[in-house]
Amino acid sequence: MLVHNKGKYVRHRKNVAIIPGVNDISERDWDTFKSHPLNKTLVDKGEIVVVKNEEDQEGAGGKITDLNASQAIELVQDTFSIQVLEALKEDEDRKTVIDAIDKQIKVIREGESDNEE
User: Which top-rank group of organisms is this from (predicted)?
Assistant: First the structure.
């Protein structure tokens, strides 16, 4: 499942670490993570959220393809794990989202951004 850490800090619980940006974790790890009172507070306040489309607030989330292209691109731009980006790309068929994934991978590998062009 995809979990978005909107904060600036890595959050931990036992062997589960959620870095800033989008993370791909198992439901079991998510249950472990949110079982700690501090992490539950972060979830309740919306700093850490399960990715889901706006119409499916009860859904388990977890697929970028469930989001509209704008939402998907926004999440891609806040993802800093090449492994997660490559996994997102495997399921994706929208050109704009694939281009955003490729661009983000390039930014991570080469340190380029829009500000440097």
Answer: Bacteria
